[in-house]
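[job 0412] stage=fold_complex status=start
inputs:
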Amino acid sequence: MANRNLDAHVKRIGLQNKIATGILTCIVGFVLVLLAAIVVYILVQGAGKALSPGFLTNPSTDDVAPGILYQLFDSFYMLLITLVISVPISLGAAIFLVEYAPDNWITSAASTAIETLSSLPSIVVGMFGSLFFVVTLGWGISIIAGALALTMFNIPILVRTIQQALEDVPRSQHDAALAMGLTRWETTVNVMLPAAMPAIVTGIVISAGRVFGEAAALIFTSGSAAARLNFASTNLASPTNPFNIFRPAETLAVHIWKLKMEPTPGNDEIVWGTAAVLLVCVLLFNVLARVLGKFLARRLTAE
Amino acid sequence: MAKLMPKRSLENVGLTVTGLCIALVALVVVTLIVMVAQQGLATFLQDGVDFWSFISGGNWIPEDGRFGALPLIVGSFSVTLLSTVFALPVALGSAIFVVEVAPGFGRRVFQPLVELLVGIPSVVYGVLGLSVVNAAMRAIFGEAAGTGAGILSGAIVLAVMILPTVTTLSIDALDAVPNEYREGSYALGCTRWQTVWHVVLKSALPSLMTAVILGMTRAFGETLAVQMVIGGVERSMPTGLLDPAATLTTALTSGLSNATTGSVQYHALWSLGLLLLAMSLVFIAVIHLIGKKGAKKRG
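[job 0412] stage=fold_complex status=done
writing structure:
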């Protein structure tokens, strides 16, 4: 009797196990199909427009074939400015937290500040930027205001990845350098940073992908007005000079947002085309991050 | 001795430079909090709007001077909770699969692919949701769905957006469970599912909760994608899941461009920002609390 019960029990839990594994496999299959569907759908919807003549090389004001040339330029330029500001600050902050941070309330307050920044909705960052950078500091709707808003959005992501990268360097390397009589600063610059560099670069490029697609923080800081650029301009203060950081700018993501909010005939095609271009850029950032990380790991760590 | 001095000053330079970086970040955060609080509280202190009626009022019509944020609060919470309910089983299932069932395929193929989803921009999800999810709502529910914009559509799009976050963090959580636990369970003759259900999930619970809350934080603060699929122009209480609604974030995006600096409308929008900020702080506090409890449990 007891044996029959045990047999039944074993059979039951065996069946449960099989069913559970089956369900888990279905879930994973579902996620993969979903992912593929999302990417393929956007690319199929947008490919026609994105590859049409002039789309990547015409300004959006072109009457015959409006394109996204200026938005494309503005997106990359904004990203560049953002990285130029956020990478050094994040690097410094991360090094401080890993290497120097005394175990006291100042350090924990600083970590909490970074945590707060990371959980803040990007629209709140944009709102803050629209008051502080645009109005209080008097920079107006400009690339620099947008880039600083993006910097606030990017810093917590970067600090965390750089911190992780530095902490993943074997403790023995760190201790050996200190034992040789190097200062903590020399240890960081000559031992820790080179060892952590592949992971840091990967982290920066991945964060670049996030920044590239961000729009909520930009609508009220760098604006959504289609820029008019003159690539022949040499006057840095001119509003049409592409490199003037005090001119308004519209990135690809903001462009999509604006077109979607002001629907006019023919807009939908441009929206899908822009979305496809944006998606391809972001996917390329991801691939680049992995390739670059592997390449640097081989070059720098002699493995 | 003379050679030691430069070393000391070098060390000081390093300390100062990196310390300044972190001080700068902290200063920016403090400035932000002070500014949001100042502008957000001005609604109540300066413009004399009653705080209680702000929180509990059922109509958000700023141009008429009616500042009832309750519909927005309800909108934000319902899309957040609903999207978490949708995303959690899928994320948890995927995480169990990756850690317990097929680690090879899971780590090398599945996880990198899921992480790609994080990178897809919010506006792109919005455009996609607008044309696919809203159309699906119309097809399924017919007349009742209206244009298809509503809380349910918002929650579905958000669920897809937070899926990678929750999945990745859940994978880390399950991964951190010591292997001895599993081996002990298997040695007692447990099946894999019994091991997962009774041992792994139980001991990973605190970290799993953290994963869920971080997902919710993201859903709560998400703006543009939600604005596109939820309607975002409603001003009164939503009555059902198919009803168009507005959230705290969407009210900000649609209102900020029309409000003049210093007006009551402008301050009221900052009050919404202040609510969002307060919620972020609550989420962080909960995560810290869970972390502390987990640490206490482990001894």
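[job 0412] summary: Residues 178 and 184 of chain A are 7 Å apart (CA to CA).
[job 0412] exit 0
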